[in-house]
Amino acid sequence: MDFSxxxxxxxxxxxxxxxKLGEKASISYSILNSIENGRxxxxxxxxxxxxxxxxxxxxxxxxxxxxxxxxxSTDSE
Length: 77
Fold this sequence. Notes:
Elements: H1 3-13, H2 18-25, H3 29-36, H4 44-53, H5 59-65
Helix pairs in contact: 2-4
C-alpha cells in the first residue's frame, strides 16, 4: 500500500473530510487532495502533521510509506 492510499483509508475510517483534516493538520485542502491522489509527495513534516491529526500511533509506518527511512534500526522479525 502506498502513502496516498493509506491516508485516504485512515481518513475514511475516522469519518473526516479532507477539509477538516486540513484544518486539524494546518495543511491546505488542495495540497491534501493532491497527496491523496498521488500527485504530490508530502514532506516529512506534512506526514508527521497528518499522523498527529489522524491520531495515528505508528508514525514510522506512515513515514516509510511516504518514502522516508525509519530512524530506528531495530526491526523485530
